[in-house]
Design goal:
- The structure holds two protein chains of two kinds.
- By secondary structure, chain A is α+β, with helices and mostly antiparallel strands.
- Chain A has five helices and seven strands; from the N terminus they run αββαββαβααββ.
- Chain A starts with 23 loop residues before the first helix and ends with a strand.
- By secondary structure, chain B is mainly α.
- In chain B, helix 1 packs antiparallel against helix 2.
- Classes of the chains: A alpha+beta, B mainly alpha.
- Chains A and B meet through strand 5 of A and helix 1 of B.
Chain lengths: 174, 215
């Protein structure tokens, strides 16, 4: 997955951005900027899992980084605002909401005549058939999470295998 | 995840065949990954072989190429396995479709049978017969009504006689008329003056025509 060159917003090179602001209104704006930055960054690079060690939270050029506490706060806020989801220690960026992702995947399946057929999660994530789809390369845990959501809507059924990491899971679309 | 009274998990729409198909597809995925690995390996070794050639190490290059050849056969065999798998998967999926078709036909047949029970052949025959009788009956009524209400119909013959009587009067009148004289009579010549004028006009015309022709 070639990382596209990402254009940093002005805040990224603004030192106070890496310190959680005490004033409520400023803090609100700061958190919002962080949410947008995180989503844009991951969307452009097509990476779903947030890596706390990445240069996103660490700007060596201005010698500033977010403290672990700050990162936790920001990620919690991200999840609260529906732009992120956590699984244990892992956090995933949601530039599309879970239900939006669900719609995208379900539409793709319907458009390709795959309703009422069984697919492996692996082939949805990495198959040749999904090469041009926005969800190609999605982390398997997140994919499973999205499909569970579709299951609640009655549009799919998740088929679990023996592996805990969902690597042998499948799905049947309706 | 629901309130206090969360529903039990809804009935699964996944059949045993679906599970079998999933396993087949997972095997297919593994084979494809295996193929990718081999192909990547081949690329690396090809690059390495080229390097060796540049360095003049022909024997190593040859060995690497031999290895690559062997991997080609591996790929071919994997391809065959993949084809078998895909064939089996599509057979299963098609069989599922066929079952649906047969069920559909079955349901259709049953519906048709139910309809036939409601309307048997005997019933239809009876209804058709009743309808014919009713039409005939109606015709009789029509005829009766057309026959008129107590008015005496004069005899056709009497009517003809009267007609003849009327015609006979006309004939008598014809006989009393004087006969038309049949003797030959010299008919005086009809005045030709007018005619001549007309003829003159016509003559002029023809003269003109003649003069035209002459010139």
């Amino acid at each position: 997955m070639a990382a596209t060159d990402f254009e940093w917003p002005w805040q990224y090179n603004f030192p106070p951005f890496f310190t959680i602001q005490p004033v409520a209104t400023t803090k609100e704006q700061q958190l919002q900027s962080w949410r947008n930055l995180i989503c844009d960054y991951h969307k452009t690079k097509r990476i779903w899992e947030i890596d706390t060690g990445s240069d996103l939270f660490n700007n060596s050029a201005i010698n500033r980084h977010l403290s672990p506490a700050a990162i936790r706060l920001i990620l919690q806020n991200l999840v609260q605002e529906g732009q992120g989801v956590m699984s244990g220690e892992r956090c995933f960026a949601l530039w599309n909401s879970v239900s939006q992702w669900g719609s995208l995947i379900h539409s793709w399946a319907a458009d390709n005549g795959l309703s009422n057929t069984v697919l492996t999660l692996f082939e949805i994530q990495s198959g040749d058939e999904t090469e041009n789809q926005p969800f190609h390369g999605m982390d398997i845990w997140l994919l499973q999470h999205v499909i569970s959501h579709l299951e609640k809507e009655g549009k799919a059924e998740l088929m679990l295998g023996d592996n805990e990491d969902f690597s042998d899971a499948g799905v049947k679309f309706f | 995840m629901g309130g206090l009274f969360s529903r039990k998990k809804p009935v699964s729409r996944v059949t045993e065949q679906d599970k079998a198909v999933l396993k087949l597809k997972q095997t297919r995925d593994k084979l494809k990954q295996y193929q990718k690995k081999i192909m990547l390996n081949q690329e690396k070794e090809r690059a390495l072989a080229k390097q060796c050639l540049d360095q003049g190490r022909k024997d190593k290059a040859l060995r690497l190429l031999k290895k690559k050849k062997f991997q080609d056969t591996l790929l071919e065999r994997t391809d065959t396995q993949l084809d078998n798998l895909e064939q089996l998967v599509s057979d299963i999926e098609f069989a599922q479709v066929e079952i649906q078709v047969v069920n559909g036909l079955k349901g259709g047949n049953e519906a048709l049978d139910e309809l036939h029970k409601i309307m048997s052949l005997d019933d239809v025959e009876k209804i058709m017969g009743d309808t014919e009788d009713a039409i005939a009956y109606q015709k009789e009524i029509d005829d009766m009504l057309a026959g008129g209400v107590g008015v005496e119909q004069p005899d056709d013959d009497a009517l003809l006689e009267e007609l003849g009587a009327l015609l006979g009067v006309d004939e008598d009148v014809g006989e009393k008329l004087p006969e038309v004289p049949v003797s030959e009579i010299d008919m005086p010549e009809a005045p030709s003056h007018k005619l001549e004028e007309e003829e003159e006009e016509q003559g002029n015309e023809t003269q003109e025509r003649r003069t035209l022709v002459a010139s």
